[in-house]
């Protein structure tokens, strides 16, 4: 239970040749044009920074997102800032509030620093219940909104996120985790993080950009906040990034057509399988805007995960609040055929 995403990846690795749709990785690698930029940097690996890659990445992101460049910072993945936010802004007297189910990394960091973690169930449409979140702990230090949410893939309307920003304690931080935002076309929370000094947005290159093993993430936030998050390392650790990843990310963010095409392909794969499940009388939860969906088996999800693994398909975990519901990552069309065949065999459909 300590590192559940990593554990899922280990399980997928242990079974050579298994279909890996368990850890919300991208089924394919970085865009070829971005991978090529990374390859070039391998031969220059003797330099901490061959030229000015770091600034070029931040400028590229600033122009794509329409956010001032001094509010963008790059990290070796988004897990690092996701842990630093509670360490910096929560405490034994200022807790953390999240939805349930949601991405649980922050629960574990909260437990370690002795901050009370309060969980408010998702609404019936699987968006965050921001009013219930505030009511659950009106004096928290950190309010965490994951949108699209892991594991449901569902969006929380920007108006609700804005409401939470406006109504939380002034000195509390609203952390909006947008790891899966590239599968959503509507407004995102970057505008809030650009305009306010109490909202932090997290992004990652691990998902749509296919760079989970290369490690690159972003924060969009006021420098006053990120300076606090870097107090123990003086910005040294944050500043030292793998230049292969920086080069790859820099080229990736500008590929609007490739991003759209990859999103469309994965959305089609997701919808096809969700429709198939529902037609077969298996309940797939609606509303995902990400590379994942959930399936309510009506019986323990752990057993279904094991039975499907026996068919060489590794699906994701369940959450304690919904023990009968598994998360499934959207893979290639071929991966999804393998998943449907495994489900049909296990459930005798
Ligand atoms: N946030 C969410 C919602 C995630 O699902 C994940 C990974 O699964 C992360 C953050 C961390 O990803 P990374 O550290 O690879 O950026």
From TrEMBL:
Q: Name one Pfam family in it.
A: Aminotran_1_2
Q: Which Gene3D superfamilies match?
A: Aspartate Aminotransferase, domain 1, Type I PLP-dependent aspartate aminotransferase-like (Major domain)
UniProt keyword annotation of Cell membrane present: no
Return the CDD domains for the record: AAT_like
Query: Has the keyword Transferase been applied to this entry?
Result: yes
Family the entry assigns: Belongs to the class-II pyridoxal-phosphate-dependent aminotransferase family. Histidinol-phosphate aminotransferase subfamily.
Query: What is this protein's name?
Result: Histidinol-phosphate aminotransferase
């Amino acid at each position: 239970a300590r590192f559940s995403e990593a554990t899922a990846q280990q399980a997928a690795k242990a079974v050579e040749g298994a279909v890996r749709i368990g850890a919300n990785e991208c089924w394919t690698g970085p865009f070829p044009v971005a991978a090529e930029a990374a390859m070039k940097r391998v031969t220059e690996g003797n330099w901490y920074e061959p030229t000015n890659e770091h600034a070029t990445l931040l400028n590229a992101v600033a122009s794509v997102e329409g956010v001032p460049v001094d509010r963008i910072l790059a990290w070796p993945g988004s897990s690092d800032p996701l842990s630093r936010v509670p360490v910096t802004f929560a405490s034994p007297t200022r807790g953390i509030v999240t939805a349930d189910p949601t991405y649980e990394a922050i629960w574990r960091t909260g437990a370690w620093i002795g901050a009370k973690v309060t969980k408010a169930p998702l609404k019936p449409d699987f968006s965050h219940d921001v009013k219930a979140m505030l009511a659950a702990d009106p004096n928290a230090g950190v309010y965490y909104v994951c949108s699209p949410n892991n594991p449901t893939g569902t969006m929380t309307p920007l108006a609700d996120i804005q409401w939470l920003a406006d109504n939380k304690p002034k000195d509390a931080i609203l952390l909006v985790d947008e790891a899966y935002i590239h599968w959503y076309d509507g407004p995102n929370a970057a505008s809030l993080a650009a305009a306010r000094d109490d909202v932090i947005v997290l992004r990652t290159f691990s998902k749509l950009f296919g760079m989970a093993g290369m490690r690159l993430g972003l924060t969009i936030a006021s420098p006053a906040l990120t300076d606090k998050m870097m107090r123990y390392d003086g910005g040294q650790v944050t500043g030292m990034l793998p230049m292969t990843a920086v080069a790859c990310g820099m080229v990736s963010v500008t590929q609007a057509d490739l991003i759209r095409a990859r999103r469309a392909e994965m959305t089609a794969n997701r919808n096809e399988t969700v429709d198939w499940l529902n037609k077969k009388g298996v309940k797939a939860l609606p509303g995902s805007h990400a590379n994942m969906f959930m399936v309510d088996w009506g019986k323990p999800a752990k057993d279904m995960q094991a039975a499907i693994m026996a068919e060489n398909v590794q699906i994701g975990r369940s959450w304690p609040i919904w023990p009968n519901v598994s998360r499934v990552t959207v893979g290639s069309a071929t991966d999804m055929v393998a998943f449907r065949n495994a489900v049909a065999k296990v459930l005798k459909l």
